[in-house]
From TrEMBL:
CDD domains (alphabetical): GH38N_AMII_ER_cytosolic (cd10789)
Residues in Glycoside hydrolase family 38 central domain copies: 506-577
InterPro entries listed in its UniProt record: Ams1-like_N, Gal_mutarotase_sf_dom, GH38_C, Glyco_hydro/deAcase_b/a-brl, Glyco_hydro_38_C, Glyco_hydro_38_cen, Glyco_hydro_38_cen_sf, Glyco_hydro_38_N
Organism: Ilumatobacter coccineus (strain NBRC 103263 / KCTC 29153 / YM16-304)
Name the record gives this protein: Alpha-mannosidase
Amino acid sequence: MHDDRELIERRIERELWERLLPLVHVDRRALSVAAGSDPDDLAEFAVGTDWGLPWTTTWFEASGDIPGGWLGRRGTRIEAVIDLGFTRSPAGFQAEGLVVERRADGSMRPLQGIHPRRTNYRIDDPGEHLTLLVEAASNPTFPQFAPSAQGLPETAGTEPLYRFRTADLVLLDVETEALAHDLDVLDGTMRSLALGDPRRARLRQAIVQALDALPDIAAGRRAVAPHLEPLDLPQRHRIVATGHAHIDTAWLWPIRETIRKCTRTFASAVALMDDDPSFVFSCSQAQQYAWIEERHPDLFEQIRERVERGQWNPVGGMWVEADMNLPSGESLARQIVFGQRYFTEKFGAPSTEVWIPDVFGYPAGLPQLFAAGGMHRFVTQKLSWNKQNRFPHHTFWWEGLDGSRVLTHFPPVDTYNAEITPGEVAHSIERFQDHAWSAVSLVPFGHGDGGGGPTREMLERGHRIGTVDPKATLEFGTPSDVFDAIEREATYGAPVPVWRGELYFEMHRGTLTSQLRTKLGNRRCERLLVEAELWAASLGRSADVDELWKEVLTQQFHDILPGSSIAWVHRDAEEVFERVEADLNERIDAMLAELAPAELSVANPADVAFDGIVTVPTWLHRSGSDVTRLGQELGDGSVAVRAGAPALGVAALEPLPAEDRVVVSDTAMTNGHLAVRWNRNGDISSIIDLAARRELVPDGRMAAVLELGRDQPVEYDAWDLESWTRANARPVGGGIIAVEAEGPLVGRVSVTRRFGSSTAVVTYELQAGARQLLVHVDLDWHHDEHLLSMAFPLDVRADTASCDVQFGVVERPTHPSSPWDAAKFEVCAHRFVSLSEPSFGAAVLNDGRYGHAVFDEAIRVSLARAARYPDPDADHGRHRVTLAVLAHDGDLAAVRAAAAQLNQPLRVLAGGSPHTANGASDEPVVAIVSSQPGTSSIEVDAVKLADDGSGDLVVRFHEAVGDRATISVRCRRRIAAASRCDLMEAPQRGEECLDGIVSTTIRPFELVTLRLRLAADDFDGR
């Protein structure tokens, strides 16, 4: 017998579009259009005319009379259709519009967004005449992987981008629309079944019967009605669909446009809720809510009302959906603090689920941070993109560095932009890897990235799929509904799987290096914010930097800080960082002027005591002083001198005699700890640790070598880095060597290397008393599509490298022995990477880089990239970074301490008084002392006054290297009471105080927030 199944299904596909859909609109009338750049100054505009210079706004007014025969006609609905010139591309990546109501006072009330997948606006109370006002944004479209000058407004061009296509009034037949939805779902369900499945044949036959009945809509609906009856099948997978609109806080558009995307999307979601009471919308990012609250308070109140009735579900508990790899641990803590406080204040409760579907990897310290922020549930999706290895679970416990766990769910639909199609449901069931113990999963649906959110068509499909799919039920709900079901399953079923350690993302490794200025600006501001809070607490006052924190946190969004946005976004971010940095430095200078105990003082914001070489600008001290007598003129307007300073404190600068000296020759530098030698090309050929009698550089290899490789990813230029980029890299050629400083306190030798259009001046610096060689890189970078790295081969045998991450260290493989190991050819580390044998090791430190490679018996630091998309001029220009090679005795705490000092250098202060406001500025406000003398494994993350204005001192710290420790916490004045707190500073349990000192045990990698009530006379004026 002839098999015509495929032909019939092709017929169905065509006729649904060509025969049925045209019947939905039973009548149509053209509207008159006016347009202009100001809603109060509009001129006649012809449909079919080009409009919209890049990044500009055009106001359109569409108006016309509604035919009398349409009004009150049963079984119909009146809608306006506005097509700004859309393509079928997804929403959010081209022109967009917002339908607004102009009120009597001239203000604009948002009603609904317009985009390629939502061109219709429903007229609920039609009168005899209709006038629609639309704010339209002519945002450029950026073809993927194609460099474009449109990423900046001044280079975006002067030609209109779009042609206004349609402004019509339509009369829609409700029953015909319903039949279209019926057939859409049944057709999709049919195609998701196996070709020989009897149910597929039955559905195919019913659809054909319905199409054959056209134009008799009632007969068509009768033909398919039996197949839309709820199925009574056992053991169907339960899918909870939650409305969602992933709105990138910036990406291929600036933050200015994101604010408007939020307005369009949120107004559309509210309108859908009014149409469909079952619709539930989950929405994250407190910053985006705050924008709406400020600009559209009426819309914000509508959102609050829907939160109260359970249709709008605030999720995520963070200020923005931040990148997880690059911000400091304290920054991530503040993301949660500001996010959870906002949700609690505005919506009555904090979030219970972390919601970050689209970030590029998840460090191992996150579970305890999430839990400390009140969130024990976690939703993400991005690991489904892994290129090398398929993650083995969709629902599991994620266990972090300290043993904390969060219940984690990866929606098996493998997208956060689902459209609720039968194919997506089938994919969810097929991909779900935990059927053995779980029968529930989540589908986040709605147009995302550029926003837009759910549409009416998605909801109609959802209502039908929930009854007809033979393998799954579908309901609208929240992530909490999914986790509640998972927890019930775990109570009565098999144990939940556990994944321990980081969730490494096997893509987008280039985001660890792209857009260096953005990354460096963020790191500087993170450091300064914490430092400002420290000195303010030392003065007994609040730093009042919440608004600055929020500005920085916003720029940590997962397409800003990773460097994957258009040029406009990064220019804006860098301007924010520059302004915040200047503001903070001014505040810090003023506070330190109060704290400085002497005419010349030093302030140490690091959590380890300092004893070493400090550089004093010549103008800060008198000629003939101890600085001059004991110091070394450096020839750059400064003097190097040995000095000391307490951790987290301020002290008089008292120059100390050097107990060590640096000796420099044409080919070598030595001090009492290291002997460094270079060859005639300026490459480091030897670094000998004198105490251990160990050579750090393997025989026949060179260290601090610049390597240049062509960097052309298969896709996602600014995001991805391929394994062969490093494999094909070659050393940069010889350089010009110059001795800059000859000791005795500081030795410096510079090597200038020119390669193509770029130049690097690499300066080796050895200081008296130091067990590390500083390597300063001053790079003038003008390459495109290349990766520049600096390689440090190390003669240390180690199977893993210890990489500094938030709240601890993660061990990464130094060999590609398995597919999971091989995928980690580029990894994230914040301040150091260390290789260790039991009694000896070597580490590479940095003050401003994140991308590292640890294969091939070397540590490589990624210095610069030059992606062409989406910013064709990314990273061109001047960049500076300091690296260091540190020899150690296998003591990771010593490595951490050195990295802390490199990243939080001393400040030299002038103009202080021996009679300061507090009278005790040389004593730190807080000291954390370990029972193990000499250790520095306790890292202080923040010292500040409590946010509630009580005057309590809040100290946050963590154990940083995996070593259980007993510590004592002391303050400048007696501690009267102490408690451990969550991130929001709410007490969890008390800590015993003896003689005004708190002693406690801290587990490996444990994060602790202490709230301390000090003696009443602690601070003047408190």
